């Protein structure tokens, strides 16, 4: 009945999945390694510059204002954002598809190269390492260093944050990026292999580069931001379950993790972020959310969680433990889901 479990396709697929996960935990993202996200980012930047020049020409009436503009700048930028999204996702998907087949002549080489590529889609170790640097800076009493370290992993202005705000921002980004950097890539790998995992990384990279709600990116980033919400819709909701189970394993507040995650799921400008943030806030018994500054503009966010205690540096380490355990729960869950689906189709 379960002969399919021993088939080369199923076993190698799951072996690559597990090896990539644990390889990421061991090596993370070394600074010297040519990470695919860097190249995705360069492609997005190149396309953005070209799109802005093109839209400006179409929307400009010229020096004498004699000709009517062919298209409004706002509409042109929105369309350009969609074109950039399609071009980037298609290019990334095609690259990963070729990569996943170019080494087919040797099974072990193929699995090794696919494992390496999939590892770059995960950032569990990197997220924990970067957030721990903030904890160490606060532990030494160096708030300025903590602000600097925080600025590397968040989009908000960190220059005037106090210790409590730094901790809150760090816990929030660990919660959010557990989805972006771990759970969602695993979900899309199970859904469509390496090409889908890479496509997701392209989607997420574009959101982080273009998805700001300020004057510069409001139009160009419209579709990248909305489509990132679509791609994260299921992983974000699954994260509530995974964080809940992780809090149970770690003896944190399991009931509050689930309760707050469900209760405060709409307390965010994003349709997805409040799920992981709420689950983590409930597990730790803290309050997240509130007003932040992005590019000089204040952005209000409702509070998430119940302030049973004040935030403290140790909450960063506790959030990291939730990151690790929830990611491991995700690995097991997605592997079992893949086996069940394959069994049903066998």
Task: Tell me about this structure.
A two-stranded antiparallel ribbon has the order 1-4. The radius of gyration is 21 Å and the shape is globular. Helices cover 70% and strands 3% of the residues. By secondary structure, the protein is mainly alpha-helical. The chain has one domain (7-345). It is a multi-pass membrane protein. Keywords: Cell membrane, Cobalamin biosynthesis, Ligase, Membrane, Transmembrane, Transmembrane helix. Belongs to the CobD/CbiB family.
What are the main properties of this structure?
cobalamin biosynthesis; 4 strands; mainly alpha; Cobalamin biosynthesis protein CobD; globular; membrane; 346 residues; single chain; Cobalamin_biosynth_CobD/CbiB
**If you compute it from the alpha carbons, what radius of gyration comes out, rounded to the nearest whole angstrom?**
21 Å
Number of helices: 11
How many domains make up the coordinates? Answer: 1
Structural class category:
mainly alpha
Please give the share of residues in helix: 55-70%
Major sheet: arrangement of strands? 1-4
Please tell me the overall pLDDT. Answer: 91
How do the strands and helices of this protein lay out in sequence?
Elements lengths: L7 H20 L8 H24 L13 H30 L4 H14 L3 H16 L3 H9 L11 H48 L11 H28 L4 H10 L10 H11 L3 E2 L2 E3 L2 E3 L3 E2 L9 H32 L1
Antiparallel strand pairs: 1-4, 2-3
Keywords: Cell membrane, Cobalamin biosynthesis, Ligase, Membrane, Transmembrane, Transmembrane helix
Protein name: Cobalamin biosynthesis protein CobD
Pathway: Cofactor biosynthesis; adenosylcobalamin biosynthesis
């Amino acid at each position: 009945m379960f002969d399919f479990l021993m088939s080369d396709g199923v076993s190698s697929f799951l072996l690559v999945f597990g090896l990539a996960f644990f390889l990421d935990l061991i090596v993370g993202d070394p600074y010297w390694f040519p990470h695919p996200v860097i190249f995705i980012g360069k492609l997005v930047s190149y396309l953005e510059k070209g799109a802005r020049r093109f839209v400006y020409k179409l929307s400009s009436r010229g020096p004498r204002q004699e000709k009517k503009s062919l298209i409004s700048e706002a509409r042109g930028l929105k369309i350009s954002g969609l074109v950039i999204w399609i071009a980037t996702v298609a290019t990334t998907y095609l690259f990963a598809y070729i990569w996943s087949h170019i080494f087919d002549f040797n099974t072990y080489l193929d699995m090794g190269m696919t494992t390496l590529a999939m590892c770059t889609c995960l950032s569990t170790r990197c997220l924990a390492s970067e957030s721990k640097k903030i904890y160490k800076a606060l532990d030494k009493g160096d708030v300025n260093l903590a602000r600097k370290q925080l600025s590397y992993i968040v989009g908000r202005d960190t220059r005037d944050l106090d210790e409590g705000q730094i901790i809150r921002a760090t816990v929030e980004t660990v919660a959010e990026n557990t989805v972006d950097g771990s759970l969602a890539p695993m979900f899309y790998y199970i859904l469509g292999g390496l090409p889908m995992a890479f496509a997701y990384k392209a989607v997420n990279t574009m959101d982080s580069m273009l998805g700001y709600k300020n004057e510069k990116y409001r139009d160009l980033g419209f579709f990248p931001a909305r489509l990132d919400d679509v791609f994260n819709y299921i992983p974000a909701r699954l994260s509530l379950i995974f964080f809940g189970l992780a809090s149970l394993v770690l003896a944190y507040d399991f009931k509050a993790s689930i309760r707050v995650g469900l209760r405060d799921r709409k307390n965010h400008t994003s349709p997805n972020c409040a799920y992981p943030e709420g689950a983590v806030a409930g597990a730790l018994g803290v309050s997240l959310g509130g007003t932040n500054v992005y590019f000089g503009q204040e952005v209000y966010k409702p509070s998430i969680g119940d302030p049973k205690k004040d935030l403290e540096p140790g909450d960063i380490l506790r959030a990291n433990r939730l990151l690790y355990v929830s990611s491991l729960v995700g690995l097991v869950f997605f592997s079992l889901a893949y086996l069940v689906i394959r069994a049903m189709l066998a």
